[in-house]
Design goal:
Blueprint (H helix, E strand, L loop, with lengths): L15 H11 L7 E3 L5 H13 L6 E3 L7 H9 L2 E2 L4 H29 L11 H16 L10 E6 L2 E6 L11 H11 L24
Parallel strand pairs: 1-2
Antiparallel strand pairs: 2-3, 4-5
Helix pairs in contact: 2-4
Length: about 210
């Protein structure tokens, strides 16, 4: 049985003065519509949505979308305001996150702590739970790993431009289960003349290895 089953929204009492100021401005008769200028993401959209909800705003809401707060970007954003309906999906995503954290995070954490915590807080959440499960699954793969011997063929080739090494690949497979199978391939191509059928050159970045933790 969950300890909490309803979500009651209210603002921090220390922010009462600021909230009342916003509410008063929203209700001004000379204000035709409101521009939402919170962060351009799910959480920014949610913050504005909750403020308008608690303030019981009845005015139309427009959305300004900017990448940076420069005069040029702000001017461009004001000239291209979005209707609130265009932001409904982002609002729904933020509100869903809020409800999910409430239902899973608060309820499950309370129940799990009381039943299994042994006096310690046992955190359960929509992010921590699947993340810990991924770590657990990986640990189980390592513990249950059974090493298997396989063989690969690496050839050394000579050409007019110089020498190079290459790995034998058939289709997408390059590994042999037995040394005998690998030796059969080696015997069939040793001292043979080859022909380059295809050449691909790609640019790639090689990053430094991650620091040890």
């Amino acid at each position: 049985m969950f300890l909490r089953i309803s979500l009651n929204l209210r603002f921090d009492s220390s922010k009462t003065k600021q909230f009342n100021t916003v509410k008063k401005l929203l209700n001004r008769k000379d204000v035709e519509y409101v521009i939402n200028a919170t962060d351009n993401d799910r959480e920014g959209e949610l913050i504005a949505f909750l403020i308008f909800l608690l303030a019981k705003n009845k005015k139309p809401v427009k959305r300004i979308l900017v990448n940076e707060w420069t005069p040029e970007d702000i001017t461009r954003g004001i000239k291209n305001l979005k209707d609130e309906d265009e932001m409904r999906n982002l609002q729904a995503a933020g509100y869903t996150r809020l409800i999910t954290d409430w239902l899973i995070g608060i309820n499950f954490t309370s129940v799990a702590t009381l039943k299994y915590g042994n006096g310690k807080l046992l955190n359960i959440g929509r992010v921590i739970l699947p993340t810990v499960k991924l770590v657990y699954d990986r640990d189980m793969e390592i513990l249950n790993f059974v090493p298997k011997t396989y063989y690969e063929i690496e050839g050394h080739f000579k050409a007019e431009a110089g020498e190079y090494k290459g790995k034998y690949v058939k289709g997408k497979e390059s590994k042999f289960d037995t040394l005998e199978d690998a030796n059969k391939i080696i015997a069939s191509i040793t001292s043979e003349t080859g022909k380059i059928l295809d050449k691909k050159v790609t640019m790639s970045k090689e990053y430094a290895p991650k620091l040890l933790v």
